[in-house]
């Protein structure tokens, strides 16, 4: 039975594509995309910096190829930086939708990235996406996905879903929740005089207990005069029978700093960023920042940029007739040493002709 037919002339022998189902909330951290986005990108500095580091590097990569396609990619539409926006959507959501805006002659005039959580695929009878529905509130518009697609869908691999890709937020949700919880714990510690709390011990000589009115008055005086960071170090005047008993931090409390750093490294790992580039302590995987930056480009930036540029070029082929897009590695500063090493190796190869050397280096005749 033919499961994956050719792009043209698809028949109904292929079973309908399936969509993955998101499981119920687990571990106490949010499962919906919007909630994860607010916790991670909007509320966590490590996750936001990791996404920005990769997305801005993708946007800054020099692009070469078909002049018309390059012009569409580098141009801003509505103030939007296309490559940075698409890279961020792929990292966070796992899907990126690029609308092709027409000019007066019906050609491709601009490229604009749509918010991925507002787009839904509409498959045909054989399960292939025939169109995409973009919804904003009660309004929606249908964007065709034909030979000249009105929207270009880019996605990352999802093992349980055929229509949509998988972003990094789900994998980073647990580490983000731990990191944010540790931050809130430290904030609470700072609000409570920036030191471990203690206990007032009432030890009267006759063994009597405090009356309810005395207890309420004492608690109100403590909250007003001694709690909070503004009252840190303020001397305490105790009446007869009262003794202050300081409580020290437990070993589990002392480990909060290490726990927060470990969670931050896991967040950076989820987005493919070397922790050294985020200034995280306790990480000596790379000898220096230059090696870490080179690893970032090799393992995260260049593969993501290639995915985006290849997908856009294929989507624009129906509009421009022919389109090629790629990163110009010769103009990437982080890859200069690798390119220099390659040039030296090719130049020293006496058994190659000048034409073969130029071909090896990707230089035209």
Taken in chain order, the helices and strands follow as HHEHHEEEEEEHEHEHHHEHH
- Count of helices? 11
The helix/strand class is: alpha+beta
- In helices, the fraction of residues equals 40-55%
Strand content: 15-25%
Q: Rg, please?
A: 29 Å
> Would you identify the regions where 5 or more consecutive residues have pLDDT less than 50?
1-14, 16-26
Q: Span between N and C termini? A: 47 Å
Quaternary assembly: single chain
Total DSSP E strands: 10
Mean pLDDT: 80
The outline comes out as elongated
Q: Strands of the biggest beta sheet: in what spatial order?
A: 3-2-7
Can you summarize the main beta sheet?
A: 3 strands, antiparallel
Count of the separate structural domains: 2
Give a written overview of the molecule.
By secondary structure, this protein is an alpha+beta fold. It contains eleven helices and ten strands. The protein has helices at 33-40, 45-60, 67-74, 82-92, 169-191, 212-225, 251-254, 256-270, 289-320, 336-347, 354-360; strands spanning 63-65, 95-102, 108-114, 119-123, 129-136, 139-144, 151-155, 198-202, 242-246, 325-327. It has a three-stranded antiparallel sheet. The chain has a three-stranded antiparallel sheet with strand order 4-5-6, with no helix packed on it. A two-stranded antiparallel ribbon has the order 1-10. A hairpin with a 5-residue loop joins strand 2 and strand 3 (108-114). The longest helix is centred in the C-terminal third of the chain and has 32 residues, at 289-320. It is elongated and about 100 Å long. The protein starts with 32 loop residues before the first helix and ends in a 5-residue tail after the last helix.
């Amino acid at each position: 039975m033919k499961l994956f037919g050719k792009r043209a002339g698809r028949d109904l022998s292929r079973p309908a594509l399936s969509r993955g189902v998101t499981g119920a909330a687990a571990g106490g951290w949010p499962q919906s995309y919007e909630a994860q986005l607010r916790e991670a990108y909007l509320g966590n500095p490590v996750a936001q910096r990791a996404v920005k580091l990769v997305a801005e590097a993708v946007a800054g990569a020099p692009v070469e190829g078909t002049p018309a396609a390059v012009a569409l990619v580098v141009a801003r539409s509505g103030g939007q930086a296309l490559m940075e926006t698409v890279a961020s959507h792929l990292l966070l959501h796992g899907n990126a939708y690029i609308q092709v805006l027409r000019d007066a002659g019906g050609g491709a005039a601009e490229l604009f990235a749509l918010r991925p959580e507002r787009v839904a695929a509409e498959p045909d009878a054989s399960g292939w996406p025939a169109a995409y529905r973009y919804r904003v509130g009660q309004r929606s518009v249908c964007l065709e996905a034909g030979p000249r697609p009105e929207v270009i869908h880019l996605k990352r691999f999802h093992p349980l879903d055929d229509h949509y890709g998988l972003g990094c937020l789900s994998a980073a949700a647990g580490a983000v929740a731990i990191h944010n919880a540790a931050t809130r714990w430290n904030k609470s510690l700072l609000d409570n005089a920036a030191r471990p709390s203690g206990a007032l011990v009432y030890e009267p000589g006759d063994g009597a207990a405090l009356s309810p009115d005395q207890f309420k008055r004492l608690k109100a005086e403590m909250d007003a005069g001694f709690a909070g960071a503004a009252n840190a170090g303020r001397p305490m005047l105790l009446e007869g029978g009262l003794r202050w008993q300081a409580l020290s931090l437990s070993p589990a409390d002392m480990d909060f700093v290490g726990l927060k750093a470990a969670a931050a490294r896991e967040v950076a790992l989820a987005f493919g960023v070397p922790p050294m580039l985020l200034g995280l302590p306790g990480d000596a995987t790379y000898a220096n920042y230059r090696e870490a930056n080179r690893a970032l480009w090799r393992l995260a930036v260049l593969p993501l940029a290639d995915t985006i540029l290849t997908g856009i070029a294929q989507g624009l082929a129906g509009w421009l007739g022919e389109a090629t897009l790629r990163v110009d590695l010769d103009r990437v500063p982080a890859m200069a040493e690798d390119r220099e090493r390659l040039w030296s190796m090719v130049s020293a190869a006496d058994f190659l002709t000048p034409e073969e050397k130029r071909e090896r280096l990707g230089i035209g005749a």
